[in-house]
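About this split. The held-out portion is used to measure sequence recovery: a designer receives only the structure tokens and must propose an amino acid at every position. Recovery is the fraction of positions where the proposal matches the reference. Here is one held-out target exactly as it appears in the evaluation file.
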């Protein structure tokens, strides 16, 4: 079944929830908390001080096009979530509970075994000199030249295996713009970490909608694979510590990569996303998820579907305890090394990153 989506930027662009269709309404791109998110950005990623209503002019360096468009996203095959009611033991925002869904068959093979023992897995790029700083680059994937924005700290040590974090943007954004929005490059995550922000391209038949194809055989999983291979050959990367973070349609892509490449990715952090849609995943990933109870672009039930998928995939019970920050709930009984943390929020950003979100993501990813 196809769901019709519309919107620009990090607003109403995501859409189909896990194992169900999701109704999208509004175009909530724009103002996010902490003064970090966009209030209207130019293609260079600079803050545009006009447009305080939160609208996002789409002028990306990758030809993102202009006005919002009608987008078709396939819900693919999945089963309806069923299961026991999750017990919520915190006074977190309404919607923290829900059902722990079946979510489809998932491999229980632990991904990245070395990451659970603390041993690094150095890539072939270790020992080679490499360019530092922030810059645009490209790689061939699926017969296409794909671009990305790279950020390598000046303190980079080519003999020390580094974490690698992928940051996926929402509709009609660019990697450079999402670098600012996600605000990942701060302590404690900044030390010993490389950051890459891929650029999406127009969906087939949708020239005004820059986003991601989510299927295992589609171009954007091929882009992830080719980009990871290129970076592993150029930089000293710890192959047991590959992470993915994304918001809105970037959250959909984060869930998709976490599922399809769960034998490669160590952990994911999803902001206002949905999915994964496939019936079978590879390996396991640790998962941190946040979703607005009052998200007018991607329904809360879609985020709850993602939560339930990862809780089941990681062998968690239906019990939770209050986490850190206070809005978060930590599922209990999860397989060692594969926690699931659920952080609902209300009156705190809606479809955007909540006030606590960016710091919480940095702390979560840095814990591995």
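Reference sequence for scoring:
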């Amino acid at each position: 079944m196809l769901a019709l989506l519309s919107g620009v930027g990090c607003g109403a662009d995501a859409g189909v929830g896990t194992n169900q269709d999701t109704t999208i309404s509004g175009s909530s791109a724009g103002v996010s908390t902490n003064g970090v998110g966009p209030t209207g950005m130019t293609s260079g990623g600079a803050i545009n001080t006009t447009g305080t209503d939160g609208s996002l002019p789409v002028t990306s360096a990758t030809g993102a096009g202009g006005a919002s468009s009608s987008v078709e996203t396939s819900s693919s095959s999945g089963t309806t979530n069923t299961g026991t009611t999750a017990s919520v033991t915190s006074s977190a925002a309404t919607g923290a509970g829900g059902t722990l869904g079946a979510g489809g068959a998932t491999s229980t093979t632990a991904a990245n075994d070395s990451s659970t023992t603390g041993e690094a897995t150095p890539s072939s790029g270790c020992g080679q000199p490499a360019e530092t700083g922030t810059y645009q680059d490209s790689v061939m994937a699926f017969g296409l030249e794909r671009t990305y924005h790279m950020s390598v700290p000046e303190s980079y040590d080519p003999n020390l295996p580094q974490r690698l974090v992928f940051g996926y943007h929402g509709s009609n954004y660019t990697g450079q713009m999402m670098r600012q929005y996600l605000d990942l490059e701060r302590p404690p995550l900044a030390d010993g970490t490389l950051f890459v922000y891929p650029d999406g391209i127009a969906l087939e038949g949708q020239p005004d909608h820059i986003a991601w194809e989510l299927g295992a055989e589609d171009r954007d999983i091929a882009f992830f694979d080719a980009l990871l291979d290129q970076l592993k050959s150029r930089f000293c990367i710890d192959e047991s510590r590959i992470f993915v973070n994304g918001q809105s349609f970037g959250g959909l892509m984060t869930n998709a990569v976490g599922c399809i490449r769960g034998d490669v990715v160590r952990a994911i952090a999803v902001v206002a996303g949905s999915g994964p849609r496939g019936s079978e995943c590879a390996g396991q990933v640790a998962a941190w998820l946040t979703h607005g109870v009052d998200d007018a672009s991607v329904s809360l039930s879609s985020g709850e579907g993602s939560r339930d998928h990862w809780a089941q995939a990681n062998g968690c019970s239906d019990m939770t305890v209050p986490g850190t920050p206070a809005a978060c709930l930590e599922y209990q009984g999860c397989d060692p090394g594969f926690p699931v943390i659920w952080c609902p929020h209300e009156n705190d950003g809606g479809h955007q990153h909540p006030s606590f979100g960016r710091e919480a993501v940095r702390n979560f990813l840095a814990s591995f």
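Annotator remark: The chain has five helices and 14 strands.
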